[in-house]
């Protein structure tokens, strides 16, 4: 029982990761693919942050009366990753808009049809 | 959170997908607070739930709001994903349990930061100290990535928006898309 | 968009200064509490984006014009990188802020503030630039649609 609870955070992470991967691989709509990609990304955030938590610890801001702090390093890495993540998503969305302008669709299958017709 | 992801996978209306994405980001921000990562939580709430939702809505406004049904059965992706998930779960068995102070990742450089950050940088918030000072190179790189992405978006959106080849598909589509 | 709703307009005007001050608080209090350049940048950009969504993008571009945004994006990166070079010139390693102050702690503190300011400028202006890009396109599409519907009415 304790092992199940101890690894629960990793299993949630794995589920989110697999869910995001499934959306990216199986769905043809590009906006949905990007949402899936961001879910995939968030699962990685969770993977980094959750091992850094120390039970009984507090947030890593030095203050009187606290001795145990959670690990600050993953927080730093993920903080920057989130902002970079939204910038890359925006880049992807810009590509989607361009594709829509040029081909009139954002479905992968329909794009394939257009290519094979041409 | 898990339920939201299932909802995102199943929803075909892209509006619903985007809104569920926002809900998911807020839930993730809450989880981050519980995990003591207040800085991360703040960023996730502002960026994930705020910025990306606005951007996705703008793009929905520009394109279409419904997803076409799948043409092929999703059997192969499903198998691939399940295999990946299985391998990852098997991998978690070797990881240290949750909340352990003696786990390797909490014994490497973190104790040094926690002990020395305040009197070496004068900043009680260790996250800020590490972000700007100890790991300045990292942050410089990240800022450069944001810079590059911003330039990329500007180039993609600004250069000649005239459609290059219009097939007969999109001429009927525009009015109802803009109804949103 | 929603330019005609009076409640939205009034509430937006009330909220704008609060959001901007909160952004500055997050920026400069980042040493002591949660916060820093990344969060503050996004919050400040969100204030302008809210303004743009309610009052229209031209109004927002009247506040901060596109060209200013485009100058600010590289400016932030240059501040960050320039801080590193300044440390180099003062005889330390790249991105070591110790020589800026009378003693190493004060120098580090000052360096962190400058670097965070660089991060703030780049993040806020990049978010704004992205919003202007997409929002401008949406307005164009709106105008095209309006023209089309007028034509069909005739």
> Count of helical segments of chain B?
8
Helix content of chain B: 55-70%
Oligomer: heterotrimer
Global mean pLDDT of chain C: 80
The structure class of chain B reads: mainly alpha
From the spread of the alpha carbons, the general shape of chain C counts as elongated
Q: C-alpha Rg of chain C, in Å?
A: 20 Å
Intertermini distance of chain B: 28 Å
General shape of chain B: extended
Run of helices and strands of chain B: HHHHHHHH
Q: Please indicate the count of domains of chain B.
A: 2
Number of helices of chain C: 5
Helical fraction of chain C:
over 70%
Give the DSSP E fraction of chain B (strand runs of 2 or more residues).
under 5%
> What's the number of structural domains of chain C?
1
Task: Tell me about this structure.
- The complex is a heterotrimer of chains A (118), B (180) and C (154).
- Chain A is mainly α.
- Chain A has one domain: Orthogonal Bundle (Helix Hairpins), CATH 1.10.287.
- Chain A contains 4 helices and no strands.
- Chain A has helices at residues 2-26, 30-52, 72-103, 108-117.
- Chain A starts with a helix and ends with a helix.
- The mean pLDDT of chain A is 80.
- Chain B has 8 helices and no strands.
- By secondary structure, chain B is mainly α.
- The model of chain B is unreliable at 162-180 (pLDDT under 50).
- In chain B, helix 6 packs across helix 7.
- Helix content of chain B is 68%, strand content 0%.
- Chain B folds into 2 domains: 1-69, no CATH class; 101-160, no CATH class.
- Chain B is extended, with a radius of gyration of 22 Å.
- Chain C is mainly alpha-helical and 154 residues long.
- Chain C has one domain (6-153).
- In chain C, 80% of the residues lie in helices and 0% in strands.
- Chain C has helices at 6-28, 37-55, 57-63, 66-89, 104-153.
- The two termini of chain C are 24 Å apart.
- Chains A and B meet through helix 1, helix 2, helix 3 and helix 4 of A and helix 1, helix 2, helix 3, helix 4 and helix 5 of B.
């Amino acid at each position: 029982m304790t092992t199940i609870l101890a690894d629960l955070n990793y299993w949630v992470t794995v589920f989110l990761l697999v869910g995001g991967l499934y959306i990216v691989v199986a769905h043809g709509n590009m906006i949905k693919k990007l949402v899936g990609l961001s879910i995939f990304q968030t699962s990685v955030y969770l993977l980094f942050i959750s091992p850094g938590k120390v039970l009984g610890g507090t947030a890593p801001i030095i203050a009187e009366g606290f001795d145990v702090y959670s690990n600050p390093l993953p927080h730093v890495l993920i903080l920057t990753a989130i902002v970079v993540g939204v910038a890359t998503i925006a880049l992807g969305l810009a590509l989607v808009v361009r594709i829509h302008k040029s081909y009139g669709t954002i479905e992968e299958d329909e794009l394939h049809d257009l290519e094979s017709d041409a | 959170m898990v339920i939201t992801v299932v909802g995102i996978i199943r929803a075909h209306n892209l509006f619903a997908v985007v809104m569920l994405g926002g809900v998911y980001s807020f839930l993730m921000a809450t989880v981050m607070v519980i995990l003591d990562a207040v800085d991360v939580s703040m960023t996730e709430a502002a960026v994930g739930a705020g910025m990306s939702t606005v951007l996705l809505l703008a793009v929905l406004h520009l394109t279409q709001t419904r997803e076409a049904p799948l043409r092929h059965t999703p059997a192969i992706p499903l198998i691939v994903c399940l295999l990946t998930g299985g391998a990852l779960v098997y991998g978690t068995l070797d990881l240290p349990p949750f909340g352990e102070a003696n786990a390797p990742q909490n014994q490497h450089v973190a104790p040094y930061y926690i002990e020395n950050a305040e009197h070496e940088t004068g900043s009680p918030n260790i996250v800020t100290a590490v972000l700007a000072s100890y790991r300045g190179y990292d942050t410089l790189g990240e800022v450069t990535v944001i810079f590059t992405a911003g330039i990329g978006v500007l180039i993609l959106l600004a250069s000649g928006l005239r459609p290059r080849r219009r097939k007969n598909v999109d001429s009927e589509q525009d009015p109802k898309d803009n109804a949103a | 968009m929603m330019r005609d709703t009076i409640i939205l307009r009034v509430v937006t005007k009330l909220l704008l200064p609060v959001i901007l001050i909160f952004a500055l608080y997050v920026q400069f209090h980042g040493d002591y509490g949660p916060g820093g350049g990344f969060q503050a940048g996004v919050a400040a950009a969100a204030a302008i984006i809210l303004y743009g969504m309610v009052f229209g993008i031209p109004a927002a571009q009247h506040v901060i014009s596109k060209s200013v945004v485009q100058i600010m994006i590289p400016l932030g990166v240059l501040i960050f990188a320039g801080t590193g070079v300044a440390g180099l010139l003062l005889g330390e390693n790249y991105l070591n802020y110790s020589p800026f102050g009378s003693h190493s702690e004060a120098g580090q503190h000052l360096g962190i503030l400058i670097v965070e300011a660089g991060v703030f400028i780049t993040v806020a202006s990049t978010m704004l630039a992205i919003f202007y890009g997409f929002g401008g396109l949406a307005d164009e599409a709106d105008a095209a649609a309006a023209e089309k519907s007028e034509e069909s009415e005739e």
